[in-house]
Design goal:
The complex is a heterotrimer.
Chain A (H helix, E strand, L loop, with lengths): L1 H39 L6 H5 L2 H33 L4 H15 L3 H16 L7 E3 L2 E3 L1 H27 L3 H9 L4 H31 L11 H11 L3 H36 L1
Chain B lengths: L2 H31 L8 H5 L2 H32 L5 H15 L3 H15 L4 E4 L2 E4 H28 L2 H9 L4 H31 L12 H8 L7 H35 L6
Helix pairs in contact in B: 3-6, 3-9, 4-6, 5-6, 6-8, 7-8, 8-10, 9-10
Chain C lengths: L1 E10 L2 E11 L4 E5 L6 H7 L8 E6 L2 E2 L4 H10 E4 L11 H11 L5 H14 L15 H13 L5 E5 L7 H16 L3 E5 L3 H7 L2 E6 L2 E6 L1 H6 L4 H12 L1
Helix pairs in contact in C: 3-4, 3-5, 5-6
The chains are: A mainly alpha, B mainly alpha, C alpha/beta.
């Protein structure tokens, strides 16, 4: 009796999941479709026309990726340095790190971009403004300052993630590995870093999403990335709703996979932690 | 004041002044070393403080309205995420994941140029004050955007309350809303407060984006108007702007820390389970 | 008062209640005993709908527990339950813990609820603790407040789910004494407990559960002195030795 009941329960579970999927999909479709048809009564969507501009979007995407990539490299390396500063035994270094982190975290990124470009690069640096070459790659100076601002700003967030990751590893772990005869480097490599990595990775992926999202603000200093592209072409043709929807889907294609990955990693690491 | 507290305060001030001085010297020497001829004229820039003071009020207004929308929407979505009917949970999940993964600016553009064309709202009056299109759509966009973060925070907070508390409330005959209102939410608040403060700070910062769709006279907009070639104190202007944002955000963080430490007392009051 | 018919319950693949039939009369004190994992706590929790049953029926005072949600909320006002871990609301004072449900669920006026609460606090012997928070009380005091909280709803039935298991030995007596008094006042009670002395002295009937079934149901005298089943004998032998 128990067995048949169990089999019945299992069949019911599969049925339930299928039903849930169908119901969810139809509910979501229904809500979106209802919303769309309400909009359609007041607005004529011309998707065909809007989609002709995908080339411009793709160009914008390249710049968004370049800015985010440069910014990410800078943010990761500077973030690590600042994290180490904040963990240093010298109060002066710690305070410098603290000041850096807290003054950047608490101002809007757009203000920082404007400050870096108009308040600093354009105003303070001597003219003429040269293009910057990095490893044989000519970087437009707007892109350079934009990516620099992005990197400096995100470094303040990254450093906090690194710091808490490193601090989360208990001293006893180092003691234990050292007492097993491991060298400092070995205990770092086999014991401390794998554990710190686990703590760092989920929030880090979240921060990468934030960085990509922030790169949209480089439009304020006329970097021709995705958002500025959308803004420019919607000035030329009155298809703003369509253009901005396409813009949104471009961002979602970049960020949603990262967020799914982050979710997956978080769960995996959680299981590991539970097992240990 | 207690002399020990005073001494500590002075010592910290000294430490941070020193650290700031060293930081500024390093950054300054790098860039002035390149050969800049820019001269700082703080006295001239500071004459325009009244512009900032006007702007900060608008920024705070933007913040308050979007916070109200974000908090109420966030709570509704969080509760939808917890209903027993799975499709509704999935719908709420879709809402959360779409808005979390878009730049705030893109959400603003979508609402202002997209929905704003379809739904005709010209103005809105409350408490004898009148707000225009840009203000309304910005507030809605930021409210919706941050509600997606708040919903997850609320949900986690609600789920952090032990299941036995729900059982106890139900056994006393309380219904869903009574259980939520009297038992779950007050206890969840402790868990919710710190991340919620983070979202509120983010909201203040987001209001800076409004100038990109026309502006309503908030802080950043004001400085964009100030910084024209005939007033070449741009470095000073943007530095002051940053200071103004810090002056809103830092008190918020302090308030939250104070609340947290107050609530820490009630944390100790927590029933010992096991 | 409580009627249980053909109750079956599964947790996933685990069959925890395998056909329970029982009637509990008004004013009766029924003690459920059995080893851990025998299903006694689950059965108790089914009686106020905290756990759902897959087959069978449970009704309390003529109201079917499984029938509907409104029914359930209504029935629950008639059934008080006391948990092993007290489950007081940690963010409310003792007084608030006791008055919240009468005022918000039953709509009793605040002043009336206060009077009732003060009487109950008097009765459980800690009138001076009305305005403290649960964590400032000892375990025994917390459990007595939990009983008072349930009594404040003026229930027809009281369920006790191992009310003394989480208590230090010196505090067990104060809680059992309170339960004894309730029994004397003809409260209908179902008690899951390991306190054999209490069962012997207070119970009208004892139900012994093992592996999801009621093995033996009878008076304390029958149960302790003349058990019918091997499993019961073994159990009694074990607990009396311990």
């Amino acid at each position: 009796m128990a067995k048949t009941h169990f089999r019945k329960a299992q069949e019911q579970r599969i049925l339930k999941l299928t039903l849930r999927f169908i119901l969810s999909a139809s509910l979501i479709t229904l809500v979106l479709w209802g919303f769309y048809s309400i909009l359609e009564q007041n607005y004529i969507f011309r998707w065909g026309l809007a989609l002709q501009h995908l080339d411009s979007f793709n160009k914008g995407l390249m710049l968004t990726l370049q800015a985010s990539g440069l910014g990410l490299v800078l943010a990761l390396s500077l973030g690590l340095i600042v994290a180490l500063l904040r963990l240093s035994p010298f109060a002066l270094f710690r305070d410098m790190g603290t000041l850096y982190v807290h003054s950047l975290r608490n101002i809007p990124f757009i203000v920082f971009v404007l400050f870096m470009y108009f308040g600093f690069a354009r105003a303070v640096l001597p003219r003429p403004y040269p293009n910057i070459t990095l490893l044989g790659w000519d970087i437009d100076d707007r892109l350079f300052w934009g990516a620099l601002a992005l990197g400096l700003f995100e470094a303040s967030f990254m450093s906090e993630i690194f710091r808490s990751g490193i601090q989360s590893i208990h001293k006893t772990q180092i003691e234990a590995s050292r007492s097993l005869g491991m060298s400092y480097a070995q205990s770092m490599r086999y014991v401390v870093l794998p554990q710190a990595f686990r703590v760092i990775i989920p929030p880090l992926t979240g921060e990468i999403i934030a960085l990509i999202k922030e790169s949209a603000l480089l439009l304020a200093i006329a970097v021709n990335e995705l958002t500025l592209t959308a803004k420019t072409i919607s000035g030329q043709r009155p298809l703003q709703f369509e253009f901005y929807t396409i813009l949104a889907s471009y961002y979602l294609t970049m960020t949603v996979p990262i967020s799914i990955l982050s979710h997956y990693l978080e769960q995996r690491f959680n299981i590991h932690r539970r097992r240990s | 004041m207690n002399s020990r507290v005073l001494r500590y305060f002075l010592w910290m001030t000294f430490r941070f002044t020193l650290a700031a001085a060293v930081l500024i010297t390093i950054v300054g020497s790098i860039f002035w070393g390149i050969g800049s001829t820019y001269s700082l004229e703080w006295d001239k820039a500071l004459k325009f403080l009244s512009w900032y003071n006007k702007g900060i009020l608008v920024t705070i207004e933007l913040f308050i309205f979007s916070a109200i929308i974000a908090l109420s929407l966030g709570l509704i979505v969080a509760l939808l995420r917890l209903v027993p009917f799975a499709p509704v949970r999935d719908l709420a999940g879709l809402y959360i994941h779409i808005f979390r993964n878009l730049p705030a600016l893109v959400v603003l553009l979508l609402f202002f140029f997209g929905l704003g064309q379809v739904i005709d709202i010209q103005s809105f009056s409350i408490f004898g004050r009148n707000y225009g299109r840009i203000f309304i759509w910005s507030v809605i966009a930021f409210g919706v955007y941050e509600s997606s973060y708040l919903a997850e925070i609320f949900r986690a907070g609600i789920q952090s309350v032990h299941k036995t508390q729900i059982e106890a409330a139900q056994s006393l005959g309380m219904g869903y809303f009574q259980t939520m209102g009297y038992v779950i939410l007050p206890q969840a608040f402790r868990v919710i407060l710190p991340p919620m403060t983070g979202i509120m700070v983010a909201l203040v910062k987001e209001t800076a984006l409004v100038y990109l769709v026309g502006g309503v006279g908030d802080l950043t907009y004001q400085v964009r108007q100030l910084a024209i070639p005939s007033r070449p104190y741009v470095f000073e202007f943007y530095t002051i702007l940053a200071a103004y944002y810090l002056s809103i955000v830092i008190p918020m963080s302090l308030l939250s820390q104070w609340l947290e430490s107050r609530l820490g007392i009630s944390k100790a009051r927590r029933q010992v389970v096991d | 008062m409580i009627s249980i018919k053909g109750v079956q319950k599964w947790f996933g693949r685990l069959h925890v209640l395998k056909g329970i039939d029982m009637n509990i009369a008004e004013g009766e004190v029924l003690v459920l005993i059995g080893a851990s994992g025998s299903g006694k706590s689950t059965l108790l929790r089914c009686m106020n709908g905290l756990e759902k049953i897959q087959e069978g029926h449970i009704s309390v005072d003529g109201l079917d527990i499984q029938a509907s949600k409104t029914n359930l909320n209504k029935v629950r006002q008639e059934i008080g339950i006391v948990f092993q871990q007290f489950n007081l609301f940690p963010h409310m004072t003792v007084l608030k813990n006791i008055t919240i449900s009468p005022t918000k669920v039953k709509g009793i006026s605040k002043s009336d609820a206060h009077i009732t609460a003060e009487k109950l606090l008097e009765r459980i012997g800690i009138p001076e603790k009305a305005n403290v928070y649960p964590d400032q009380l000892s375990g025994g005091q917390q459990q007595r407040v939990a009983i008072a909280r349930a009594l404040a709803m003026n229930p027809k039935v009281m369920l006790f789910d191992e009310p003394t298991s989480a208590l230090d030995p010196e505090m067990i007596k104060e809680v059992l004494d309170l339960m004894r008094e309730l029994a004397k006042e003809n409260m209908t009670m179902v008690v899951v407990t390991h306190e054999m002395g209490f069962a012997r002295e207070v119970a009208d009937r004892i139900a012994f559960m093992d592996d999801g079934v009621i093995v033996e149901l009878g008076t304390p005298q029958q149960f302790f002195e003349n058990p019918q089943h091997d499993r019961t004998r073994q159990f009694i032998h074990k607990v009396l030795q311990a």
